[in-house]
């Protein structure tokens, strides 16, 4: 009995000592109601704290989506943004690493390689954050990208890939408008009908921004096997993906070459000769295009038969706390404020999807602050579910996806190789890239 009492006494002393040390650490303290609370409660200062975030938001968006939600919940915390005009490596060299980073989920690996990430699992537990509020597919994507059971960021907003279409071109050729929930086969039939000439004007039926369709592909295909550090792109899944998109560029009149590949956005917005274009949010570009005569609307991204009503994988905004921050508890508190229901409603109203699994937020608020969407199918942005993350996510993926995209471009612009040769060459190039990186 004496030994047990002594152990408890020592344990209690250790807890109290830890609480005292935390209070002297420069991060401030909250009033505690006993040793257990001192051990389990987060230490957040009530003194003024200024936090910096690395990102690329406009000043207006930063105030609405970051600074204001934080200020409402924590009046003593102010936020400012360090624009990514400076590379993060430059900030490391200058000793000016921010407290937080705002980037895409896919970028987590880059910051981990630089030693800047902080595992947020202990903070989630300490702050009693309910991760069950977050869409499970979104959270699983972040966890898989973090790897090793870590949680290196908290998802805050989503990005949706849609199909935009020019209503005037459909009207000109008396073709019915596309609808939400279409398959790629149905869109291919529309593209064939709309690729034609009218007088001296040549119209193209379809084009797409290839980065989303490969790096965040709807079939959740991996590119690298971490067990072998070898490419896994020469298979039936990638063959199906390549052939699905390539057929659009084989429609007579819809072909592309090395000079015109990837130029679909200007053809859609400025030339107004492209009937359908797949990309993500381009709200900032649409008002001027409408003034110049673009008559557009949007529908959900076409889907594959084996993955109906499924858009691309999640790669929206994620917030990370840097390992060098001197105010990690305050940074996590600020981060939690951005995940509040009010903050998520604001995010949805401005045209990014909320990451909360409560679908009513997106259904009620999505795009309400985007005037350009008020008379259009704004709820089409939230009808599809995101594709699940691939089985494997590795630090070699970014380079591998770049190679896959280059191989697709080579195939559709030159027509010099068959699909099997293109994918075999892609695998060889990815393997060489991995070998070079590992050296």
Overview of the molecule:
With 439 residues, the protein is of the alpha/beta class. It is built from 18 helices and 15 strands. The protein has helices spanning 2-23, 35-40, 59-73, 88-93, 108-113, 121-126, 136-146, 167-172, 184-194, 210-215, 236-246, 264-271, 286-291, 328-338, 341-349, 359-365, 397-414, 419-438; strands spanning 49-55, 77-83, 100-104, 154-158, 162-166, 196-198, 201-208, 224-225, 230-231, 274-279, 296-300, 310-313, 317-321, 353-354, 385-387. The strands form four sheets. The protein has a six-stranded mixed sheet, sandwiched between helices. It has a five-stranded mixed sheet with strand order 6-7-10-5-11. Strands 8-9 form a two-stranded antiparallel sheet. Mean pLDDT is 91; it is low at 1-38.
Helix/strand layout:
Layout: H1 2-23, H2 35-40, E1 49-55, H3 59-73, E2 77-83, H4 88-93, E3 100-104, H5 108-113, H6 121-126, H7 136-146, E4 154-158, E5 162-166, H8 167-172, H9 184-194, E6 196-198, E7 201-208, H10 210-215, E8 224-225, E9 230-231, H11 236-246, H12 264-271, E10 274-279, H13 286-291, E11 296-300, E12 310-313, E13 317-321, H14 328-338, H15 341-349, E14 353-354, H16 359-365, E15 385-387, H17 397-414, H18 419-438
Parallel strand pairs: 1-2, 1-3, 7-10, 12-15
Antiparallel strand pairs: 3-13, 4-13, 4-14, 5-10, 5-11, 6-7, 8-9
Structural class: alpha/beta
Ends apart, CA distance between termini: 59 Å
CATH architecture of the largest domain: 3-Layer(aba) Sandwich
Calculate the mean pLDDT score and round it. Answer: 91
Low confidence ranges: 1-38
Can you identify the CATH class of the largest domain?
Answer: Alpha Beta
* Tally of DSSP helical segments: 18
CATH topology of the largest domain: D-Maltodextrin-Binding Protein, domain 2
How big a fraction of the residues is strand? 15-25%
Rg from alpha-carbon coordinates: 25 Å
């Amino acid at each position: 009995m004496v030994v047990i009492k002594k152990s408890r006494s020592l344990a209690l002393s250790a807890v109290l000592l830890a609480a005292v040390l935390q209070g002297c650490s420069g991060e401030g303290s909250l009033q505690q109601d006993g040793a257990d609370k001192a051990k389990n409660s987060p230490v957040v200062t009530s003194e003024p704290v200024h936090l910096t975030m690395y990102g690329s938001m406009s000043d207006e968006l930063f105030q609405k989506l970051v600074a204001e939600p934080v200020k409402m919940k924590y009046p003593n915390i102010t936020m400012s943004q360090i624009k990514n005009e400076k590379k993060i490596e430059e900030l490391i060299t200058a000793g000016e690493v921010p407290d937080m980073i705002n980037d895409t989920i896919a970028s987590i690996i880059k910051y981990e390689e630089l030693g800047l990430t902080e595992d947020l699992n202990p903070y989630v537990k300490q702050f009693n954050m309910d991760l069950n509020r977050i869409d499970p597919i979104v959270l699983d994507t972040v966890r898989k990208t973090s790897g090793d059971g870590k949680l290196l960021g908290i998802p805050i907003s989503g990005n949706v890939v849609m199909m935009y279409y020019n209503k005037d071109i459909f009207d000109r050729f008396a073709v019915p408008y596309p609808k939400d929930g279409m398959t790629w086969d149905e869109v291919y039939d529309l593209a064939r009908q709309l690729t034609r000439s009218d007088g001296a004007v040549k119209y193209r039926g379809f084009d797409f921004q290839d980065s989303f369709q490969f790096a965040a592909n709807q079939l959740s295909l991996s590119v690298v096997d971490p067990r072998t550090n070898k490419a896994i792109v020469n298979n039936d899944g990638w063959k199906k993906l390549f052939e699905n998109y390539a057929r659009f560029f084989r429609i007579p009149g819809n072909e592309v070459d090395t000079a015109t590949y990837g130029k679909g956005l200007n053809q859609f917005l400025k030339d107004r000769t492209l009937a359908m274009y797949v990309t993500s949010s381009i709200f900032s570009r649409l008002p001027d295009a409408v003034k110049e005569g673009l008559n557009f609307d949007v529908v959900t991204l076409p889907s594959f038969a084996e993955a109906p009503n499924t858009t691309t994988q999640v790669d929206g905004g994620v917030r990370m706390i840097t390992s060098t921050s001197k105010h990690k508890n305050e940074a996590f508190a600020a981060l939690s404020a951005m995940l509040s229901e009010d903050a998520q409603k604001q995010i949805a109203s401005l045209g990014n999807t909320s990451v909360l699994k409560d679908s009513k937020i997106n259904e009620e608020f999505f795009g309400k602050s985007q005037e350009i969407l008020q008379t259009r199918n704004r709820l089409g942005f939230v009808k599809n579910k995101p594709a699940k993350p691939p089985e494997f996510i590795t630090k070699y993926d970014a380079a591998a996806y770049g190679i896959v995209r280059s191989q697709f471009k080579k195939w559709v612009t030159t027509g010099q190789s068959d699909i099997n040769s293109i994918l075999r060459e892609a695998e060889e190039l990815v393997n060489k890239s991995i070998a070079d990186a590992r050296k």
